[in-house]
Amino acid sequence: MTKPPLLPEPDEGEAADERQFFAPQKARKLDKVPTLGGTAEAHYHGHRDRLRARYREQGDAALADYEILELILFRLIPRRDTKPIAKELLARFGTLAGVFGAPQHLLQEVKGVGESVALDLKLIATAAQRTLKSELRNKQVLSSWSAVIDYCHAAMAHETKEQFRILFLDKRNTLIADEVQQQGTIDHTPVYPREVVKRALELSATALILVHNHPSGDPTPSRADIEMTKLIAEAAKPLGITVHDHVIIGKDGHVSMKGLRLF
After folding, report:
1. Beta strand 175-183 pairing with 163-169
2. What is the pLDDT of residues 247-259, one digit of tens each?
3. What is the mean predicted confidence (pLDDT) over 213-229?
4. pLDDT tens for residues 41-52?
5. Which is the CATH superfamily of the domain at 139-256?
6. For residues 118 and 125, is the Cβ–Cβ distance under 8 A?
């Protein structure tokens, strides 16, 4: 029987950290390392098997954050010891959420992470965000407040620039649309009340939840945040549109301006 062909090795100039293929185990050549007696299988293959077995038998509670990240990186980087890369990612970005929320170009600054791996990490983050967003579908948003916060935190907490997001709701407070209205600098986003109201009318929305992030990490509202919220609420009210809240998202928490009675 003809042996299946091995896929070609990466070109010399190609980053060694990139995944080269996802062929079944039997069809790929295991890495070998030199020993006194010849060669032996690279040490991390046994480590990967043990880590997978621990996850399979004991669940995620048995694993540290870097080990969870290792399990993901196993599939993305088949020919490297991924423990140092996982630890370096967490050291750089602080948490798993920080890793998946980091911009692609910053992920690539970590040794061992190339373009394809960074892109795949962002793809996983996108899947997680859409999963959280799906929890809001066909539900009254105000009665699913924790799901709203979880989604907004996943989508915005680790952005390096301010974003102004609007959740448009119908008369049953069900989500119609979720849109990023504006994107600004690291500490400012220009928002125009007339554009917010115009878009609400286009979507036949009767209520809004305003959300923006503070890349500094501190969700405390600024004076400009408070004034802008009041202007939007005042412009929307005569048209029968209610601003339920303005939520500010930080890396480690959030603030509800309605809860603080700031408008």
Report:
1. antiparallel
2. 999 988 999 999 9
3. 94
4. 455 567 788 888
5. Cytidine Deaminase, domain 2 (3.40.140.10)
6. no
Name the nearest CA neighbour of 211 among 195, 191, 231, 194. Answer: 191
- For residues 219 and 191, give the distance between their C-alpha atoms in angstroms, rounded to a whole number: 18
Q: So where are the chain's domains? A: 25-129, 139-256
- Alpha carbons 120 and 113: distance in angstroms, whole number: 10
Secondary structure (DSSP) of 159-221: -SS-EEEEEEE-TT-BEEEEEEEEE--SS-----HHHHHHHHHHTT-SEEEEEEE-TTS--PP
Q: Residue 86 has which token pair?
A: 């996982």
Residue 68: what pLDDT? 93
Model confidence at 14, in pLDDT bands (50, 70, 90)?
Answer: very low
| Amino acid residing at 24 | P
- CA separation for the pair 262, 229 (Å, rounded): 9
Confidence of residue 40 (pLDDT cuts 50, 70, 90): very low
**Which residues in 65-101 are b (16+ Cβ under 10 Å) and which e?**
bbbebbbbbbebbbbbbbbebbbebbeebeebbebbb
Q: Give the type of residue at 184.
A: G
Looking at domain 25-129, what is its CATH homologous superfamily?
Answer: 5' to 3' exonuclease, C-terminal subdomain (1.10.150.20)
C-alpha dihedral, 233 to 129 to 185 to 245, nearest 10°: 20
